UniProtKB/TrEMBL annotation:
UniProt key word Oxidoreductase: yes
A Pfam family matched in the record: F420_oxidored
Protein name, per record: NAD(P)-binding domain-containing protein
Keyword Kinase: no
One GO molecular-function entry: oxidoreductase activity
Keywords: Oxidoreductase
Annotated source species: Streptomyces telluris
Domain of life: Bacteria
Start and end residues of each Pyrroline-5-carboxylate reductase catalytic N-terminal domain: 2-92
SUPFAM superfamilies: NAD(P)-binding Rossmann-fold domains
Length: 221
């Protein structure tokens, strides 16, 4: 699959590197040509170029820029993004006295929804924001002998199918979580997890499967 990367930071190189290792053709785009060239060389990408060139290159386009600038970039590139799947990995997070908090208004509002509104002819998926970028540098992310589950919300069936295909190609398990109106829940979950990690805890310990409880009944909701 051809994938355009919008951005040259740590998430751009972590995910771009994972896709390059999986055999996808990746082109890194940035406003700074030197930064794009450096990022592309680091992950052994197929090439580098401008943001417009990266958006035009891929069937899938990763939005790996600061969350508050992602909708503006989507609007700027809307004609190029038409017909493509935009993967939004941004986390709209701001520091606060009680830990990190959402910068979006909450409810059905999310960065992913704002990207979709800015580029209405693109398919948008909220995905890859839950895990720290270091997870994507692992050859095959798996924990406790189980492939990493990657939750996502997609605005169209085509975007959902392409996202699931990409996740599977990385050795992970797709975890569909509904349509794009639920993307705000993934953003909030990411910030919750970050807050737990910063406090020294383990977010995964808060979500045991009911099937692990003694006497669990299979048909319980």
């Amino acid at each position: 699959m051809r994938i355009g990367i919008l951005g040259t930071g740590s998430m751009a190189t972590a995910l771009g590197g994972a896709w390059a290792r999986a055999g996808h053709s990746v082109l890194v785009g940035g406003r700074n040509a030197a930064a794009a060239a450096t990022a592309a060389a680091e992950i052994k990408a197929a090439g580098h170029g401008s943001l417009t060139e990266a958006a035009a290159y891929g069937e899938a386009v990763l939005m790996a820029v600061p969350a508050d600038s992602a909708p503006r970039l989507a609007q700027e590139l809307a004609p190029v993004l038409a017909g493509r799947t935009v993967l939004d990995c941004t986390v709209p997070m701001a520091p606060g006295p009680d830990g990190p908090s959402l910068t979006t208004a909450g409810g059905t509002d999310s960065i992913a929804a704002r990207i979709a509104a800015a580029a209405p002819a693109a398919g948008v998926a909220k995905v890859f924001g839950i895990c720290h970028e270091s997870i994507w540098t692992l050859p095959r992310p798996a924990f406790e002998n189980t492939p990493l589950a990657v939750p996502f919300c997609a605005g169209t069936p085509a975007a959902a199918a392409l996202t699931a295909e990409l996740i599977t190609s990385m050795g992970c398990s797709p975890l569909p979580c509904g349509g794009l109106p639920r993307a705000a829940l993934l953003e909030a979950a990411a910030i919750f997890a970050v807050g737990v990690w910063w406090s020294g805890g383990e977010a995964r310990h808060a979500f045991p499967s009911p099937a692990l409880a003694p006497g669990a009944v299979d048909d319980e909701p």
